[in-house]
Amino acid sequence: MADSPWHATVIALFVWWFSTGIILWRVRVADNGGAHQHALSVLLAAPLAIAGVAAFGAALQDATAFGTYLGFFAALSIWGWIELAFLSGIITGPNRTPCPIYAAPIDRFWRAVGTIAWHEALLIVSLVTMGLATQGAANPFAFLIFALLFGARILAKLNLFFGVPRINIQFLPRPLAHLASHFRVSRITAFFPFSVSLLTVASAFLLERAINATTPGTAVGFALLTCLALLAVLEHWFMVLPLPDEKLWRWMMPARKIATPRIQDRLQEDPHGL
User: Fold this and answer.
1) How crowded is the C-beta side of 86, counted as CA atoms within 13 Å?
2) Which terminus of the chain has fewer CB atoms gathered within 10 Å of its CB, N or C?
3) What pLDDT, on a 0 to 100 scale, did the predictor assign at position 184?
4) Whether 68 contacts 11, CB under 8 Å
5) Residue 88 phi/psi, 5° resolution?
6) Which DSSP string do the residues of 46-102 spell out, in sequence order?
7) Which element (helix H / strand E) includes 200?
């Protein structure tokens, strides 16, 4: 396994793009195949999560570059399975109905929380468990990568709730069609620059650690973290700038055979009330 930070950056970019595309592709295929296909997706991917847990345990005491990569793939395997379970509508939350257009802000907030509650709970339990297991371990990077993904995702979800100019909902599967009604299309709020600044500062800190790393394992680990943090910054800017980010994966998506509820119509109907 390459122990160069540059190689790590290329690997992180490819894995981010490829793993996102595979999940979106499988969710679209399941959408076209019927409701039972979503449950089948989660079941078929279960070995990936199991392998991720095993790899996480194996990487804990391996501080080499190989151990860091093993921890990286372990964190992404666990994260990917949880995301697939969410997008498949298997692990979401108790609220599965669209938000009323003129719901009060506090009501809209708790309805939004209800749409993702079980998913967030599973992520938190996984994060805490990995953190406890990493105590005293030689290789903390699986936990750090999972924690970074979790923190960046929380910032992104809050920005979607508070309001951003661009929301790409074309990849939302049928089980989560109601989720878009909790988003808000509007000018950015003060939370957006706070989020981008926080992620940018984190990226700079991680880059400094990668440059000054004293071992190949730590150099690779902080390079992977830096790349993921910068990708999180980019994903936030996708919410604001008119960039065709969906083209990164749209070409590999099969055509949708079953129509989804026209949540896009809802966004156009009342873009500032969602």
Assistant:
1) 18
2) N
3) 86
4) no
5) -80, -5
6) HHHHHHHHHHHHHHTT--SHHHHHHHHHHHHHHHHHHHHHHHTTSS--S--SPPPTT
7) helix 191-211
Confidence of residue 263 (pLDDT cuts 50, 70, 90): very low
pLDDT of 262: 46
Cα 274 to Cα 105: distance, rounded to the nearest angstrom: 9
Domain ranges of the chain: 5-269
Q: Calculate the dihedral angle through the C-alpha atoms of 215, 221, 223, 227, rounding to the nearest 10 degrees.
A: 180
Given a contact cutoff of 8 angstroms between Cβ atoms, the answer to whether 159 and 236 are in contact is yes
Could you count the other beta carbons within 10 Å of the beta carbon of residue 234? 14
The pTM assigned to this predicted structure is 0.90
Count other C-beta atoms under 10 Å from residue 208's C-beta. Answer: 12
Q: How far apart are CA 270 and CA 266, in angstroms?
A: 6
Residues 18-51 as b/e (b if ≥16 CB within 10 A, e otherwise) read ebbbebbebbbebbeeeeebbeebbeebeeebee
What are the angstrom distances between the C-alpha of 42 and each of 6, 30, 35, 119? 34, 10, 12, 14
> Which is it for the CA torsion 113, 116, 121, 126, positive or negative?
negative
CB atoms within 10 A of CB 274: 24
